[in-house]
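Severity: low
Component: inverse-folding endpoint
Summary: output formatting inconsistent between runs
Steps to reproduce: submit the following structure tokens with default settings.
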């Protein structure tokens, strides 16, 4: 059974085609960890066997484009179709290849279209041939720049005026301070934004309209003082928008939302736009916004009517689950009655729970925490919304009292050629800890990359403890005891040894 498709577009796998098997595996593994189910190989940009093998291994479907775009007419049809036939033959052994697409954002010329269709239907019968990445049974066309999160729930936002199977959507994404500095070396790009930023895709004239993204960040949290401040504030917008993209499709599941793919999910170099993680495989708010909204069992609320639903992307029915909604102020005090109800959710379906619209007497900034538990009380999904009456209301976090964290890192366990460990972080202060990020470090304090976290950018109530599982390649961590760093928006950082 194939449920709602969640995934992203790839262009080149690496700018200079330096993509050995271990790096390819890491990239595809990160898509699987985001709960993605498909990667689109845009205009056939990746022709490496390692790409398809990694998708096979990690259970990721491949939408494979032929090398054609915008209705281009190849000068030699037979030569083009000969390559198309050979391409299908070469990759048909891979069970991950689920779609062959004739052209990006356009209908191929009729003779070429028919030839590609025949190549697919004769050599891999049963596999779908879709002639246009943005027409017919699917649609595309962005948006490619930042929009208010609630706009994703309005079909008029999209060029097709519909949800459907949407093949391209995205926005700028500035990653962590460490990754941003790595664009040009330890000193990082200049601040304010200038030269090197523009070289690395920051554009105020392209589809990304990066100035709108920057304005959204600073409207919410104030003018950035420096690069560190800007990248820290950017994660709020990254997380909120990417979560909203996929939650909009969840909210309209099969009516008629059937798939959503990011433009783009994988960077070929250090970039400032259209990515879910950075070139060095460090993760950011976009990554965890995607991971949250795409989880197999999920609880969410739309930001317009605040209709709370439970979503089941698995093949098994969910029976007798409980949905709970709690509302808190920034001191962690519960400021509204707790709502709860029980739901049954069929496979690949959603079920309404209740509405949780904010009452007029609630603070301009407060937290809505949704929890989905099974009939035994085990948490299946947890989702925290920072609700603001105006975008500027989020600036209350700049005045809130600092809180304190404590953390611990258990001894790492072997799992084949990987290592896993459990991290625990606790809010020991009297205020909510906002967007707490965990980072695995080596003995020398350098980041251990790539590291997978089953949760991150946490909101912790006073006294609350959260446990997170970490996983990384054994080769990524030099000998010695690893360290764990925990750092929230309103907390001083704390670093502990494993």
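Observed output (run 2 of 3):
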């Amino acid at each position: 059974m194939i449920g709602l498709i969640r995934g992203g577009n790839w262009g080149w796998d690496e700018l200079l085609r330096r993509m050995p098997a271990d790096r390819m595996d890491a990239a595809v593994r990160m898509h699987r960890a985001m709960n993605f189910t498909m990667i689109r190989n845009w205009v056939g940009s990746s022709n490496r066997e390692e790409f398809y093998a990694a998708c096979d291994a990690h259970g990721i479907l491949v939408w494979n484009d032929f090398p054609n775009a915008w209705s281009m007419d190849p000068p030699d049809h037979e030569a083009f179709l000969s390559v198309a036939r050979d391409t299908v033959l070469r990759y048909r052994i891979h069970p991950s290849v689920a779609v062959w697409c004739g052209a990006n954002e356009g209908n191929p010329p009729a003779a070429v279209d028919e030839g590609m269709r025949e190549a697919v239907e004769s050599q891999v019968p049963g596999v779908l041939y879709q002639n246009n990445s943005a027409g017919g049974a699917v649609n595309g066309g962005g948006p490619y720049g930042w929009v208010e999160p609630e706009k994703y729930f309005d079909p008029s936002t999209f060029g097709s005026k519909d949800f459907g199977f949407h093949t391209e959507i995205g926005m700028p994404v500035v990653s962590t301070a460490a990754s941003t500095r790595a664009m040009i070396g330890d000193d990082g790009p200049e601040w304010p934004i200038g030269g090197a930023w523009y070289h690395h895709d920051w554009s105020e004239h392209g589809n990304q309209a990066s100035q709108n993204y920057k304005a959204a960040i600073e409207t919410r949290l104030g003018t950035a003082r420096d690069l560190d401040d800007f990248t820290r504030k950017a994660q709020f917008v990254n997380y909120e928008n990417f979560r909203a993209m996929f939650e909009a499709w969840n909210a309209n599941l099969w009516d008629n939302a059937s798939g959503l793919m990011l433009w783009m999910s994988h960077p070929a170099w250090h970039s400032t736009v259209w990515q879910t993680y950075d070139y060095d495989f460090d993760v950011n708010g976009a990554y965890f916004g995607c991971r949250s909204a795409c989880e197999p069992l999920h609880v969410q609320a739309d930001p317009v009517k605040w209709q709370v639903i439970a979503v089941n992307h698995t093949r098994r029915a969910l029976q007798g689950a409980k949905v709970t909604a709690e509302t808190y102020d920034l001191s962690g005090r519960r400021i509204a009655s707790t709502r709860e109800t029980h739901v049954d959710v069929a496979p690949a379906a959603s079920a309404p729970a209740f509405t949780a619209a904010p009452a007029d007497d609630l603070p301009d900034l407060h937290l809505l925490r949704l929890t989905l538990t099974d009939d035994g009380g085990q948490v299946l999904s947890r989702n925290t919304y920072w609700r603001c009456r105006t975008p500027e209301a989020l600036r209350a976090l700049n005045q809130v009292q600092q809180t304190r964290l404590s953390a611990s890192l258990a001894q790492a366990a072997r799992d084949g050629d990987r290592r896993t460990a459990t991290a625990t972080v606790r809010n020991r202060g009297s205020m909510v800890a906002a967007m707490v990020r965990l980072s695995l470090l080596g003995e020398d304090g350098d980041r251990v990359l790539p590291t997978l976290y089953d949760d991150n950018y946490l909101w912790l109530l006073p006294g609350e403890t959260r446990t997170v599982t970490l996983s990384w390649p054994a080769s990524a961590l030099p000998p010695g005891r690893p360290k764990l760093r925990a750092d929230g928006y309103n907390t001083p950082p704390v670093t502990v040894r494993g």
